[in-house]
Design goal:
heterodimer; A: 203 residues; mainly alpha; Rna Polymerase Sigma Factor, Chain: A; Arc Repressor Mutant, subunit A; 9 helices; B: 297 residues; alpha+beta; four-stranded antiparallel sheet; 10 helices
Chain lengths: 203, 297
């Protein structure tokens, strides 16, 4: 962000003091990244827009409750993440705890998975095909792992902000991200292998 | 540099945060921690594979490009916030108050502020997700207030109706009881005259109350029901609700033969004469009636 632009915190402070001119700037700033996050989480542009609007409606409604000194970005993402969970609940999704081993230390597991992934055969898939298999692989993650991974990789939030967004300990965030990447590496490697075998069969 | 601090004495290989490597960019790889990793990986096959695998995984993940946000997303969001009344002064939003398309926005600002229902209709007419159907708290409060006001109004109307028409209802009920009572008194006077006609020389000075009742009932002149006043609650056959008098043989037609006991009716009592006609006299007019009757004797 250029230094001449006000920070998220100063925009929210102006909004709290009654300066409604700060809201358009805030909404425009989050339009691309937050919509991208919601679309990746929900898979539907219409729902993503609805949740985007609802997020900022709640930001404005609850601006008085925002504690001075906190960072705005994790707060906004926390609101959006909770709304996404509501959507999942309405879809009837039940968390399968066996797949979300958030408390396990994923360090060695991730290293091994990444090492194995580096040895997996590469294929000649197009960008569209890569995107589709990544989308399918991420969709197979549990919602909590998916949330942590999307915030980490696609939104670029640091570990501490992800922990603040999801309201979980730092170690839990790291575990979830490592487990998600480890599982993704396996799923993508499997998809690459299947594609390579399919090409070999048709050749 | 990785987000988490690396404790001193950590083995070189364990300093590598594979997750951070996945998302690090080319520029980051050439500086800072990644530059160190590049030097370390030259002599460590394991970390070399981790770095290679992380970069490849990062390339795969990067293939899933984000969907661009709709052009009017910000405008529609601001419109929804304003419609919900979340901001105290919607006019302070300035450049983006409207849910209309940009081409119509200027014309909309020139018009007088539209009513809330029109704004909602305009927001619904646009493509894209519909505004939330849940009413904001103020609208819910207005609805509840309207419901409460309607309930109070209905209660007042019902109460007013009851208060207005209850006396009329009571009066009509009493009137019907008076008519029924007069009919019975008429029967009683006919029975008394018939008894006298059948017993012209009988001494009836002691024939009163239940003795007279038994004489009339057992003689077949009346049934027990005829001696009950319809206005008396709990009156049962066998009771006598009237005062009776056996007439003389040459009784004057205007002679009173039967009348209500005091209290049968509220505010008055029925009187039956020897000629068979009956009359309702109000209590307040009793003195006047008595004077009239005495004057005719």
């Amino acid at each position: 962000m250029p230094q001449s632009e006000p920070s998220d915190e100063s925009l929210l402070a102006r909004l709290r003091s009654g300066d409604d001119e700060a809201l358009p700037a805030l909404v425009n700033r989050y339009q691309r990244p937050l919509f991208g996050y919601l679309h990746r989480m929900l898979g539907c542009a219409a729902e993503a827009e609805d949740i985007f609007q609802e997020t900022f409606l709640r930001v404005v409604k609850h601006r008085a409750r925002f504690e001075t000194g906190r960072r705005v970005r994790p707060w906004v993402y926390a609101i959006a993440s909770n709304l996404v969970k509501n959507v999942y609940r309405s879809r009837g999704y039940r968390e399968r705890t066996s797949l979300d081993r958030g408390d396990q230390d994923g360090g060695p597991g991730l290293r091994a998975s990444i090492e194995a992934f580096s040895l997996a055969p590469e294929d000649e898939a197009s960008n569209a095909e890569r995107a589709e298999r990544v989308r399918e692989a991420i969709a197979r993650l549990s919602p909590t792992s998916r949330d942590a991974l999307v915030l980490f990789y696609y939104q670029g939030l640091p570990y501490e902000e992800i922990a603040e967004t999801l309201d979980v300990p730092l170690g839990t965030v790291k575990s979830r991200i490592h487990n998600a990447l480890s599982k993704l590496a396996g799923l993508i490697a499997e998809a690459c292998g299947n594609a390579a075998r399919s090409e070999a069969e048709h050749a | 540099m990785p987000d988490l601090p690396v404790p001193e004495g950590t083995p070189e290989c364990e300093k590598t945060d594979a997750a951070d490597l996945v998302r690090s960019s080319e520029a980051e790889r050439e500086s800072g921690h990644d530059a160190w990793l590049a030097r370390h990986a030259a002599s460590c096959p394991s970390c070399s594979r981790v770095a290679q695998g992380a970069r490849r995984l990062g390339r795969e993940l990067a293939a899933w490009a984000p969907v661009e946000a709709p052009d009017e997303l910000a405008e529609r969001t601001l419109a929804r916030v304003r419609l919900a009344g979340a901001l105290d002064d919607p006019a302070a939003l300035g450049a983006a108050p409207s849910a209309l398309a940009p081409a119509e926005d200027a014309a909309h600002r020139e018009r007088k502020p539209a009513s809330r229902s029109v704004d909602i209709l305009a927001a619904w007419a646009l493509p894209g997700p519909r505004p939330a159907l849940a009413a904001p708290p103020r609208a819910r409060l207005r609805f509840l207030t309207a419901q409460a006001a309607a309930a109070v109004l209905i209660f007042l109307l019902t109460s007013g109706f009851a208060i207005t028409f209850y006396p009329v209802f009571v009066e009509a009920l009493e009137e019907s009881r008076v008519q029924a009572c007069q009919a019975r008194l008429g029967k009683v006077t006919v029975a008394l005259r018939a008894y006298r006609k059948d017993h012209p020389d009988a001494d009836v000075s002691e024939l009163k109350g239940t003795a007279l009742r038994d004489a009339l009932v057992h003689g077949g002149y009346l049934v027990p029901q005829d001696l009950l006043c319809p206005a008396v609650h709990g009156a049962r056959p066998g009771m006598v609700c009237f005062e009776l008098r056996v007439p003389d043989a040459d009784c004057d037609p205007q002679c009173v033969l039967a009348w209500d006991r005091f209290g049968n009716h509220s505010g008055g009592f029925d009187i039956a004469y020897a000629d068979g006609h009956t009359e309702y006299v109000e209590t307040r007019d009793f003195s006047t009636w008595l004077a009239r009757v005495r004057s005719t004797r």
